[in-house]
Every structure is written in C-alpha cells, then in structure tokens.
Amino acid sequence: MFGRHPFSRASFWLKAGVAVLLALLADALLFQFFPWGSVLGGFAGAWVVGVLLARRGLARDRRALLALLAAMGFAGVMVERPGPLPWLMFGLSLTVAALSARVQSGEPAWRWVQRLFVHGVVSLVGPILDLVRLSRLKRRRPARISPLAVLKVAALPVVGGLVFLLLFASANPLISDALDAARVPAPSVQTVLRLMGCIVVAVMVWTTLRPRWHRKLLALPSLGQRALPGVSTASVILSLIVFNALFALQNGLDVAFLWSGAPLPGDLTLAAYAHRGAYPLIATALLAGLFVLVALRPGSETAQRPLVRTLVVLWVGQNMVLVASSILRTADYIEGYALTRFRLVAMVWMVMVGIGLLLICWRLLRDKGGHWLIDANVRLVLTVLAGLSLIDTGAIAASWNVRHAREIDGTGAVLDLGYLRRLGEPALVSLVELEQATDDPVLKDRVASVRQEVLKQARGDGGNWRGWNWRRARRLARVEALAARAPLLRPLPGERLPDGHLAPPPPAPEAPPEALPSPDLTTTSPLTSVPGV
C-alpha cells in the first residue's frame, strides 16, 4: 500500500545525521528567542541544503530541482520578512520536491493532493517504521555484539528515560532537589520545551528525507453522462434565459448608478449601496460557476447545443461584469471607510473568482476534462499565494490610508489611528510621514503617541540577533533618515486611548454625605415644660 525506499544502512545513518544536525541548528536559531527573525529563513535554507546532501538524486530530477529552487526562494523571502504564508509555501515546495522523484511526470493535482495528505499523516510515524525496518535488516546478519548494536538497544530506554526524568524533575521539587544534591542541574521548563521542539524538528526533517507515498489513489469523482433529476436540455435553456435576464437587470442598475455616479434614490448613499452588495454578488458568481459545472458537463448532449453555448458565453460575460461591479463596490467602500488588509485580499479574491469563471467557460467550449480545470485553478491559487507572500499588505493599507485620509487631502475617509496601531510595525513609516506632514497640533500629538508605541514594538527584540529581520532593519533605517530631516515630536504625557487621544481624567470621588446632627437629649422639650407632665 505504502511505497518504500530501497533500504541502505549508510544512507539511513547519513539521513539520521542530517536530521540530528538540523534539529540542533533549530535549537540554536529558533528555540532561544521569539518572535523569530531572519534566522527562520536561514534555517529553511539549511534544510534545503541538507535534503540535497542526503538525497543527491533529487538534483537529477527536473521537477524536484524546480521545487527545491522554489523552496530556496521562499527561504529567501523569510530572510527578508518571516511569516506563516512564506513558511507554508516553503513547506509545500520542499514536500513536492521530496515526493517528485517517485511520481510520474504529468500527474494531475487531484492525485498530488492525495499524496501530500497521505505523506503528512504517515510521515508522523515514519521514524518508527524505519527503525522497525532497520531492526529486521540487522536480524538477517550474523548475531554479534557491536557498539552500534548496543547503541540501538540502549537508545530508546536512555532517551525515553531522560525525557521522563526531565519532566518529573520540573514537576516534582523532591526529584529536582535530589538532582541538585547530586550536582546535576535541574531542567527548567524552557529546557524541556526546547528538547520537545528538537524532536518535532527532527521528525519534520525526516519526512523530507524518507518521504511516504500511497500507491492506491482515489479517482476523480465524476457524474459521467448520467442525467441529473430535473436537469434537461429544455430546463437548462430556460434557466439560462431567466438567469441572463436577471443578471442584465442587476448589471443595468450597477451601470446606471455605480459606474455612472448618478445620484441614488432616497437617502441611500453610494458607500452603503456599494458595501451592501459586494460579497453577495461574488456569492452569486460562484453559484453561477457551480451551475455550469454541474448542469453543463463537457461532452454531454446539452453542452453541445449551439444555443446553450451562446447563452453560457453571454451569462459568463455578465458574470464578469458582476465581478467587476463587486470590485468597484469594494473600491468605493474603501474610498469612504479606508483600506484594510481584509478588503485588499478580498479584491484579490474577486479577481480570482472572475478568472475561475473564465476557466469554467473555456473548459466547456474546449471540452476539457475535470483534471484540467482543477490543475488550472491550483496553479492560479499557488501563483496568488506566492505573490501575497512577497508583499506586505499591512504596509500597503497603512500607506494608502495615510495618503488618502481626510485630514490630509480633505476628501477621503477619517483616519483610523486605532487601526494603524493594530497594524503595528507595517504602519511605522507611514505614521512617521504623517507626523511630519500634518500641521494640526492635536493630530500631530495623537500620531506621535501611536508612532512611539509602534516604534517601541519594532525595537522590541532587545538586541537579540535572532529577532533581526531585513525588512524591519530597512524600516528602522527609513525612520532614522526621516527623523534626521525633521525631529520627531515627543507626545504629551498621559494615558492614551487606542486612537492616540489622551484618556479623560477619572471622575473625582464623590464626597460622603453630610452626617445629620444627633438630637440633644439635654434640651427641654415643650412637653417637659408643662406642669404635671
């Protein structure tokens, strides 16, 4: 079921040595400081070199070599700016390279997805499986006592015993004191975590040195030429006519008000009109693509009708106008309410939806198979993810908001300093430029307070070289250059709100209510003055 490598003792111990060395390198670079800086990219590059040293045959495989070059490229991206997305793309590229040597050329993405999934699951126990195979290989040889045999027998109890002893010593003061008395330093929680991290890294590296793959893979699900209930040529033609009419109505309204800028009826504003429809329209386009996929399968009788093909092309064209309107709606909403990372990524996603619709239409017109459509969409997604890993969406959002703020040009959205504060380091240069550009003393003080906090965060590595990264260094150098031309303002003292405003002083404590005078019992009352009472 699962593929096997030709087992060689020399190759096995070489790979084991590479895994151990990379685990020790991870401990030196990654497990003594957080957040990680460019050292993450350096470790990733060392990982690629280790794979090439232990598996030299990958350099002779064109696909594996291209994947390794891509992995090294993403390692370089993490030197410039470490992040989860470059790390994800690095791991994917390295895994593809590790599996390419035993995968046929031209295999579709559907089978690759299965291989990657099986590899990720089975590789978790890969070292144990390889140790079992190594023990079976040793049984075939004449029994003899050797240092290697002793090491193999003693490795598991010694390492396992040490791990449990370290855990118990960190949890039980009696064991810790006993180790102190024996002059054995008691392990700290950090030491235990570092040891566990080294084990995790060694297993991760092992998955690329001894990859696992599945021989029996699932075929791509297909409906074939079976007719779906309620889906006939007549129903599809009528549906396409109705859909085209409804889409023409929606697109006509968008052209009349959104694209032309004509005033909307009633109290409806352009920003409200734009925000209300952007995401539902994208959902509509996705449903349209699903309808074409299910009801108009390539090769079916319905899909071959010229009228159907004409209506589909017309409908996809209207969907493209719908996607363009959704992008314009989002752009208008950004104009009124500022740019955020989510809105920027949403616009990229809308473009991807439009390209996906074109691919669906092309598949229908050219009678392409399901594998072709999946492969094309996977390439599109990987290209977009690779591009997003190279850019800083936070810096783009901060720069746009500062340049188009109402406080700067008088027409944009009100500047949200609280959002720039949440962006953190990517907004640093834009905050400094805004502080030096504005003449409003109140705004300048607010910006200076937010900038001071963000600058403190950017310098928060405490001088530890493991937290240094190239992009942060360039940002700090840019800030120093700007400060050299115009000194930065020292904000007024006092507690600040997230948007930079001075926090209002706490209300004065209420004075206790005045005590009522106690009655004087010595005073003669009117009743006591009456005789006989």
Can you describe this structure?
This protein is 66% helix and 0% strand. With 533 residues, the chain is mostly helical. α10 (233-259) packs parallel to α12. The protein is flat and about 85 Å long. The protein starts with 8 loop residues before the first helix and ends in a 48-residue tail after the last helix. Residues 524-533 have low confidence and may be disordered.
What structural category arises from helix and sheet content? mainly alpha
Taking pLDDT < 50 over at least 5 consecutive residues as the criterion, the unreliable ranges are: 524-533
> What proportion of the residues is helical, as a percent range?
55-70%
Q: Give the beta-strand count.
A: 0
Strand portion: under 5%
Distance between the termini: 116 Å
Summary, kept brief:
By secondary structure, the chain is mainly alpha-helical. Helices cover 66% and strands 0% of the residues.
List keywords for this structure.
533 residues; mainly alpha; disordered C terminus; 0% strand
Topology, element by element:
Layout: H1 9-29, H2 39-54, H3 62-80, H4 84-100, H5 109-122, H6 126-139, H7 147-171, H8 173-181, H9 189-209, H10 233-259, H11 270-295, H12 306-337, H13 341-366, H14 370-390, H15 393-403, H16 406-409, H17 417-423, H18 428-437, H19 441-458, H20 470-485
Helix pairs in contact: 1-2, 1-9, 2-3, 3-4, 7-8, 10-12, 11-12, 11-13, 12-13, 13-14, 15-18, 17-19, 18-19, 18-20
